[in-house]
Each structure stands twice: as C-alpha cells, then as structure tokens.
Predict the 3D structure of the following.
Amino acid sequence: MSPEPLCTKIPACSLCGEPAVIHQRHAGHFLCGTHLIADLEHRVSETVASRQQIVPGDCVAVALSGGKDSTALLFLLHRLFKSHSDIRLVAVTVDEGIDGYREATVRSAEDLVRRLGVTHITVSFGELFGDSLDTILKGRKTQACSICGILRKKALVVGAERAGATKLATGHNLDDEAQSVLMNVLRGDLVRLVRNSGADSGGRFIPRIKPLMYVQEKEIATYLMVQGIWEDLPECPYAIHALRREVRSMLSGIEYRHPGTMLRLMENKKILETGFSGKTGEEPVGYCRECGNPCSGETCQICQIRHSLLR
Amino acid sequence: MTLSIKKPPRKVVLRRMNLILPDRSIRVIDPAPATVEAILQKEGINPLEVMVVRDGLLIPEDTLVSGDDEIRIIRISHGG
C-alpha cells in the first residue's frame, strides 16, 4: 500500500499563477522564475536610467570578482546593453592573492567572460603592490577588510584605466549599501554617512556606479539560480574579522521581521545626503603629496598603508 | 458457526524527510507537514540568508513540505 499523498503546496506567482521561486517580502508578493528575471532586469534598468549611470558612448569597466554579485552584475548589464553598439563593457578582475579562496572565483570569472564574449583584464596585488594580500596581512589579520578594501579600490581603478573606461561598475547590492549606512552610524562617521558616492568629482576619478544598489542579496542569488549560473563558492576567509559580518547578520534579521527596513535606510541616507551636503567639514579633494594621486587630505590611503607596513 | 476473518496487519510506511544543511550534512526530521520557514526557524536559520531547493526545485520559504521530501538549504555567501 502506498502512502497517502500529503499536501506540499508551492505558493503561486502573484502575476501569473505559476509556482513561485521567491517571496519578495518588501514588495509583498511571490514571483516565479520568469517574472523574477523580468522584475530584476526592469529595476536595474530603472536605476541605471534614473541616475544616468550609463549613457551612450560609455565604456563600463565591470568589477568582476567571480562571486555572485559581480557575476549577476556583468550578466545583467550584458543582457541590457548587448544590442547597444555605443556602450562597451569590459570586465576587470582583481586577484588579491588569497590562498584557497580566490582561485575558484577567478576561474568562475574567466568562464563567464568567455561565455559572454566580454574583454577581460586581470590586475594582481603582486603586480601592483609587490605582495599578495596573504603576505601583506601577516600579523594584522584583524585589519584585513579595511586594508584590502583600499588596495582593491586602487587595483580596480588601474584596471579601469587600462580598459579606457569612463565608468566603473561594482556589484554592491541593497544589503551591502544598507549595512554601510548602519556601520557609518555605529562608527560615528558622519562624513561617510552623508557622502554621495555617485557625486561628480570634477574628472579626478572614474565615476563609480552601483546598478544593483536596490536589489536584495537573496534576489540576486535566486536570479543566478533561475538563470542556471549559480555557483556555490566559498566566502572570503578574512570576512570573519569584519564588523560588517556582525552588522549583516543583525540587519538581515531585522529585515526578515520588518520587511522594507533596508530600503528605508537607503531613503533616509538620501535625505541626509541632500540636507548635509557641504556641511560636514570634509576636506576637499586634492592630490597626494607623495604619489600625486587624487585624494582628500595630504597623503592618500595607499601611501598611508605603505607607511604602516614598513613600521 | 461464524467465521472470523482476521484482517492482515496494516502495513506501516515510515516517512522520513531529509534536510540537507549548508555544510552538506544530512538531518532526518519530522515528516509532519510544516512550512520551510518553520523548519528554518527551528534550525536557527534566517530565510533571507539561504535558498531552499526541494527535490531539485527552488521553492519559497512559505512552501508546505512533508513526507518523503528532500530539502536542501543553500547558504548565500556574502561578497563578490
């Protein structure tokens, strides 16, 4: 005798009635794979258009680590702009030299660019700074994310310059952005809290854009799964030292119990940006007295790290 | 004389639900109907930090699962 069937109902897509793959709590509806793809691509397209992130004539350097966010970013931008002959995409990968972690993501990045037919530039910490991140961090692992963040930014700019890029796109998602807002509050860093990272720098920097800034991390992962390009990759071994990890877990719990919290944090950050623009006493952008690169203050962060490593 | 016909003993079918955790370890859990969300909560997992696959199909956490289902939890690692 076979057991009686039990009810195992999948919620239906709010738009077409097909089995859903995700519950978008912040929007209050369920979406099937097809409608998740359409929804995400529409929202990213809206972000790009409304903030004029990409315009005709742009060469966009896409920061591609090979992890989920950057994979989704390149895949999505390629789908949105492949028919635009006046917009060019170039992938830039930074190999920091993290043993047992970066090899898999770099391989994933190479597979993706090959599949999409996108030009690929790789920049390594060894080439730029003389050592791998693993070597640089010996004895200072608790500072891993702040040191790596500064060096990565520089490496990405070098890659973007080599590509002749007019924009530098990164895969920061809504979770990342909301976490940054909260971290700046926790650190009491008012300057960063109200700074508009998309503001015009008067040609000193390649403008940075974040097309995924209003897309949740879970939506990105589900999008990759539905598109058949999800890879279960390891997390950076240095992430355990980061304040971000704690903030991430806390904010994710709040977002689950109070959907829309992350979006509201972003809306409030925008209000602060407008209200406090030019009132925080932030030093104007000048040039580093040692290396000549644009920076605020007398010495750039890269030169400061160089000094601290020599101590 | 009345004949009493003995009913054959009812065959008991044991159901088991396999829960495959992000570290790939397998846990056999109560097969009674429950939402994936309730199962995740029991395991101390935030549904926003994982994706759930049942018998190879991606499902939202509100899905009711039971019986012989195989539930795989995939952690969404940060970064990238």
Notes: Chain A has two domains: 51-280, 284-311. The beta strands of chain A are 22-24, 29-31, 59-63, 88-95, 119-124, 167-169, 208-209, 285-287, 294-296. The CA atoms of residues 12 and 19 of chain A lie 5 Å apart. The longest helix of chain A spans residues 144-163.
